[in-house]
Write a structure and sequence with these properties.
The protein is 45% helix and 14% strand. By secondary structure, the chain is α/β, with parallel strands linked by helices. It folds into 2 domains: 187 residues, no CATH class; 104 residues, Trna Endonuclease, Chain: A, domain 1, CATH 3.40.1350. Helix 2 crosses helix 10 and helix 5 packs across helix 8. 36% of the residues are buried.
Amino acid sequence: MSKYNKYKKAPTLLEQFRSFYYQNKAQDLESAIKYFSVFGGMSWNVDMQMPMDKIIEEKVFNNYKYIHSDITQITQSDKVSHALLTGVATGDRRVHSALKKGRISRNDAEYAMETLFDNGLIEAEYSQETPPDEKDKVDDKINFTAPFMRFWFSCVSPYFKSIRDGDYKEATQSFLNREQELQELIFCKLSAFVIKKSFKDDAVVESGSYWDRNTSIDILAKTKSGKVIVGICKYSNAKAKKTELTKLKEQCEKAELNPDIFVVISKSGFSNELKSMKGDELKLFSLKNFKILVEDLTQNDFIECEGKLY
């Protein structure tokens, strides 16, 4: 495991989501995921009846200089750190890709990464299995510990000059281009928690994702009895079809995995053909299954804001 594990941990994504859901009295899970993908981790009150772009303008763009000042206290205004974070936020989160996007050498990035891990702004993610061929091994990935920081470094920080001058068009367009991507990542991450909580008779003891140079699998988990679970996430307004299962099986073949259980997680449900295939070896989870993540919420689930509310 990485040396970065020694550093402090932020609240988990599930803890942040439960806090967000409770604080903002969310009425439906789709809206909660949508708004959490931008404002998660900030303990702000968010009116989910308002259009997203209006809230971003009101809470973020109009308060840019104050939020920027607070964030630079964490990053120490280090240019390498900001380039690295933007590389992570706008890419596939792999270390090499982030350095390439930020035009940073690995040597220059080392101190910045240590500091950012130490401050709890980012954390490492590891592929759940070693690729069958060692030459196919790829870098670890980097996650932002709070969804808002991913939004900030992908849609706000790169456009600081125009935002500072009161022109929000470029930043708003960047958000509209990346909105789906931001939500997809949160949906996939929360899906792993849904699976973990749903397998009660044979508890999930390991869970994460798999990737190598040839393929990637959204969810790879193992149960206490040793069963292997693989999952694919579909965040779309269209129902998931049999093609999603076919794609998942092809990914497993490339990774030389022999799963016991396939899982398809879909925001918008499933085709009749796919539903007819459901059984011991195929589990289907839709948005309604995410309710398991926000059961029994109390005041104790609320995470107090450590900074300004803006």
